[in-house]
Design goal:
There is one protein chain. The protein is α+β, with helices and mostly antiparallel strands. It has 5 domains: about 100 residues, Alpha-Beta Plaits (2-Layer Sandwich); about 200 residues, no CATH class; about 90 residues, Calcium-transporting ATPase, cytoplasmic transduction domain A (Distorted Sandwich), CATH 2.70.150; about 160 residues, Rossmann fold (3-Layer(aba) Sandwich), CATH 3.40.50.1000; about 90 residues, 3-Layer(aba) Sandwich (Calcium-transporting ATPase, cytoplasmic domain N). The chain contains 24 helices and 27 strands. The strands form 6 sheets. It has a 7-stranded mixed beta sheet with strand order 14-27-26-25-15-23-24, sandwiched between helices. The chain has a 6-stranded antiparallel beta sheet with strand order 6-5-7-13-8-11, with no helix packed on it. Strands 17-18-19-20-21 form a 5-stranded antiparallel beta sheet. Strand 26, helix 22 and strand 27 form a beta-alpha-beta unit. Helix 5 crosses helix 6, helix 7 packs parallel to helix 24 and helix 11 runs antiparallel to helix 12.
């Protein structure tokens, strides 16, 4: 018997294209999966079917990637999943939005409006209305409550029915039973002119549980796939050389041995060998470093490299899933699926809680029926037991704290994107930092002997380029008025040139200007501009704060060991690993995890995406690339690196409050269940107790702000 957490919604993304043998051949969209139990059931169901070689669920995307031995019809898979209680559809490119969040808010509004009106009528009954007047108010309450509850509680009913149809039990089963029995008993009592009806109890249950679902839903709306962001970087077409002609073809049609042509500034689509000459490439995708890399004839160009000079010709050496970019995408997708198996506290509590609720209510019904022979009394006790034990407090324990904590963190410049991020951050004992862009930024040093006029010209040239180093120059020359330039033009991958007072001025690559330095400035003479790295503001304070928390600190970088150890001395970090590529970063993270460490990864580059996704928790600066922000659980909107310690502290506080809420829910049940089972609590009293517990949990959660 499998249990599941409350349902929630994530934005689906566009389908991933089919791949070669061994790659997923189909994508199915699963809008109703909830938790680790759902993942296990879906994958086991699909793997048991003929022709299915592999199935892997990505919970954040609500998708399962199926690898089949042949291009099979997915209809039998969809039918098998339906038999297991899961709705499934073929993923389509048109699935770009999900309206279930608006639907849930509408149901919450209906439940709240109906609850308030029925409570007004209940006040009149409690104030002493009798006989015909009381019955009239009860029937009016029924006319409001029954359609409102049947509409608003649809998410619970559908989830419970799907679980029962598949011979499973989830938290929505006792919820649905409590709502239906409360309505049914109320109609019976009203028709028999009874003193008590429980329409307000049914609506209160529905309202508070929907509120928990809406809060939980907010935590999932920002979820995106980093693997798909990486896929967006892959060029769709390439230019193939056929003798003296050039032909544009789809990248998927390239074969090993094809000769391709690339202009300066183009992204290399596949692995290739440079045919002749030299080329400088931006390899930050792999190394995270902004310094250009010179490739000589016969050298390897990797998919994802950006050519800074050109045009060039190259011979294809690897295509499809064998390219570097595709391999990184596969690593990221694998890590995303592994992280989606994380089982939150609510999941684990639900597995033990749900069977206890059913057994307790059934035992109360049977015991009172045997003892008194009064079916009406036995049903009343069973309904009261179901209502009083309804998992409202349990359902609100996590999302209420999460909503309060993430709201407070956002006001401090921290955007929490993942629904389980706080729990995973709270368990952090090791923090791994990327270097360039995360702890440091490269800057160009302005020569001390350059006069004021030269500085004005230099700033004017730097303002014409969007290159990060040019921006660093503009920042370092703050307060300097830019010169008035004419005939300004930027040469892609080379630099910027212009005319100033009739003379040519240039800023760009050293070999273009005639300097041994990688970057130089021409103004009358050649001025070398050495590239240096400086610590980001707050980096030292942020590292010290993490040290005081007792966390182990590591730095991973694609840069050389000399630069890395200079940084380590400045920061006081003892563990530094240099010259690592994306796969080595991922292996390092997994190595720490294999030793039992809970790793927080902090990075900003494309070369960090796989490591960010594989880590137990991940943080990226707001200035990071889109794929890195998608892989992260928390984004530093403010850009302050010292906010990393604030995120960990906030998560630990939230974790304590969640445990307190669970403790309160357990204590509440230890007191309330005996009262209900022994017949001391009517369904109305049970509803009031349940509402009180939900409000208490919510108030405690607000401390996370």
């Amino acid at each position: 018997m499998t249990t599941a957490c409350p349902a929630c919604v994530a934005l689906p993304d566009s389908a991933v294209a089919t791949g070669a043998a061994g790659a997923p051949t189909h994508q199915l969209y699963l809008p109703t999966i909830h938790c680790a139990g759902c993942i296990q059931t879906v994958e086991q169901t699909l793997r048991a079917l003929p022709g299915v070689k592999a199935a892997r669920v990505n919970l954040s995307l609500r998708r399962v990637a199926v690898t089949a031995a042949y291009n099979a019809d997915p209809t039998p898979w969809i039918e098998a999943l339906a038999g297991a209680g899961f709705e499934a559809h073929e993923a389509e490119l048109s699935q770009t939005a999900d309206t279930r969040d608006r639907d849930m808010l509408m149901r919450l509004g209906v439940a709240g409006f109906a609850m308030m009106n029925v409570m007004l009528l209940s006040v009149a009954v409690w104030s002493g209305a009798e006989d015909t007047t009381r019955d009239l108010f009860h029937w009016i309450s029924a006319a409001i409550a029954i359609p409102a509850a049947m509409f608003s509680a649809q998410p619970f009913f559908k989830s419970a029915w799907a679980a029962l149809s598949a011979r499973r039990v989830n938290m929505d089963v006792p919820i649905s039973l409590a709502i239906l029995l409360a309505l049914g008993m109320s109609v019976y009592e009203t028709s028999a002119s009874g003193e008590h009806a429980y329409f307000d109890a049914a609506l209160s249950l529905t309202f508070f549980l929907l509120a928990g679902r809406v809060l939980d839903q907010r935590m999932r709306k920002a979820a995106r796939s980093a693997a798909q962001d990486l896929a967006a970087l892959e060029p769709r077409r390439a230019i193939v050389l056929n003798g003296d002609t050039r032909e544009s073809v789809a990248v998927s049609d390239l074969s090993i041995g094809d000769d391709i042509w690339l202009a300066a500034g183009g992204r290399v689509p596949v692995e290739a060998r440079l045919s002749k000459g030299d080329v400088e490439v931006d390899r930050s995708l792999l190394t995270g470093e902004s310094d250009p890399v010179r490739i000589r004839a016969g050298g390897t160009l990797y998919s994802g490299d950006v050519t800074l000079t050109g045009p060039i010709t190259a011979t294809v050496t690897a295509v499809g899933e064998d390219t570097m970019l595709r391999s990184i995408m596969q690593l990221v997708a694998r890590a995303e699926s592994a992280k989606s198996r994380y089982s939150g506290l609510a999941d684990r509590a639900a597995r033990a809680y749900v069977p206890i609720v059913h057994i307790t209510a059934l035992a109360a019904f049977a015991g009172w029926l045997i003892a008194t022979g009064d079916v009406r009394l036995a049903v009343n006790v069973a309904v009261a037991t179901l209502i009083i034990t309804c998992p409202c407090a349990l359902g609100l324990a996590v999302p209420a704290v999460a909503a309060a904590a993430t709201g407070g963190m956002f006001r401090r410049g921290l955007l929490v994107k993942s629904e389980t991020a706080l729990e995973r951050l709270a368990s952090t004992d090791t923090v791994v930092f990327d270097k360039t862009g995360t702890l440091t930024r490269p800057t160009l040093s302005v020569p001390d002997t350059l006069g004021d006029e030269g500085r004005r010209v230099l700033k004017a040239l730097a303002m014409q380029s969007d290159h990060p180093l040019s921006k660093s120059l503009v920042s370092s020359l703050a307060g300097i008025s830019p010169a008035d330039l004419k005939d300004t033009r930027e040469i892609a991958g080379t630099g910027v040139e212009a005319t100033y007072n009739g003379q040519r001025v240039r800023l760009g690559r050293g070999d273009w200007i005639g300097s041994p330095q990688s970057t130089a400035f021409e103004f009358g003479e050649t001025w070398p501009l050495p590239v240096t790295e400086v610590l980001l503001p707050g980096a030292i304070e942020g590292i010290e704060a993490l040290k005081k928390m007792g966390l182990a600190l590591h730095v991973l970088t694609g840069d050389n060991a000399q630069k890395a150890h200079v940084l380590a001395r400045e920061l006081g970090v003892s563990t530094v690993v240099a010259d690592v590529d994306p796969r080595e970063k991922l292996a390092y993270i997994e190595g720490l995890q294999s030793k039992g460490h809970h790793v927080l990864m902090v990075g900003d580059g494309l070369n960090d995406v796989a490591a960010l996704t594989a880590a137990n928790a991940a943080i990226s600066p707001g200035t990071a690339l889109e794929a890195s922000r998608s892989a992260a659980d928390v984004v530093l909107v403010s850009g302050r690196i010292e906010s990393v310690s604030e995120a960990v502290n906030g998560a630990k506080l939230a974790h304590r409050l969640i445990l307190q809420n669970f403790g309160f829910a357990a204590a509440y049940n230890m007191v309330a269940i005996p009262l209900a089972v022994l017949g001391f609590a009517s369904p109305l009293m049970a509803a009031l107790a349940m509402s009180t517990s939900s409000i208490t949990v919510t108030l405690n959660a607000l401390r996370a702000r």
